[in-house]
Amino acid sequence: MRTIILVFLLTFYAAAQAQPRQSLVPGGIAIIDLDQNDSSGFQFRGKPVLVTPIDGIPRAIVGLPLSLKAGEYFIEKRSDNHVHKKYFTVIDKKYSVQHITITDKRKVNPYASDMDRILAEKKRKQKARVHYSKTGGDVDLLQPVNGIRSDSFGRRRMFNEQPRRPHSGMDFAAANGTPVVTPSAGTVIETGDFFFSGNLIYIDHGQGLISMFAHLSEINVSLGERVEKGQIVGKVGATGRVTGPHLHWSLGLNGTWIDPSLFLSARDE
Ligand SMILES: [Zn+2]
């Protein structure tokens, strides 16, 4: 009887630890075991990969772009006379189409006078997405808001029946003003009121792991600020291109957006 209770407790404890789950598809992550004495300096397509110990083993966690084709890939480490490669195989995934109706038509077909602003913001967003700092490596992330999760990451999108880029994050339905917390510690590397994303915040968690929050009603941090895991950084809102109040959370890894749900505990459905 005691053994049974212990097993129960251990299972529960393991489930509470939100360790990332491997998903070898475009928009997913590869988790690759490394040798204790050879775990640093690996790259994927020219970008340094995040390495962190999980269950005592150093593991590379590699972001796989949504645009990646099925096939064999590798992370590599180059030294003077040697290239060390670790291979993994990516399979295809078909993401479904999502039809969205936006009443503010200007957010779907911007005016010519909006284009300078949109292009300048696009550059700032690209720069924030590929930001890299060496410290960090926490991958046991908190869900950033108390809300209902949607599984819309990667879905191909039609706004007012016009094709747009696939959904690069996950949405949580939550009331206007619900607090948003940072899933891990980090530094605020970009923030402002953007045309499509509304009030947004980018947080650098280190080793190429980046959070982006969009459509906020309120921003409670400033550029360059250091934030602690679980700290309130903003409030849920409906700014930018939206149908209603929700939190959009994008998670970047080695310069590419990946499915944030792989870092949250699996749902029991
Ligand atoms: Zn979204």
Structure description:
- This protein has 269 residues and is mainly β.
- The protein folds into 2 domains: 2-90, Peptidoglycan hydrolase domains (Immunoglobulin-like, Sandwich), CATH 2.60.40.1590; 109-150 and 169-259, Glucose Permease (Domain IIA), CATH 2.70.70.
- Helix content is 11%, strand content 39%.
- The chain has 2 helices and 21 strands.
- Strands 9, 12, 14, 15, 16, 18, 20 and 21 form an 8-stranded antiparallel beta sheet that branches. Strands 1-5-4 form a 3-stranded antiparallel beta sheet, with no helix packed on it. Strands 8-10-11 form a 3-stranded mixed beta sheet, with no helix packed on it.
- The longest helix is centred in the first third of the chain and has 15 residues, at 2-16.
- The protein starts with a helix and ends in an 11-residue tail after the last strand.
- The chain binds zinc ion (ZN).
- The site of zinc ion (ZN) has 4 residues, from loops.
- The site of zinc ion has 4 residues, from loops.
Defining traits:
39% strand, 8-stranded antiparallel sheet, 3-stranded antiparallel sheet, mainly beta, Immunoglobulin-like, 2 domains, Glucose Permease (Domain IIA), 21 strands, binds zinc ion, 269 residues, 2 helices, globular
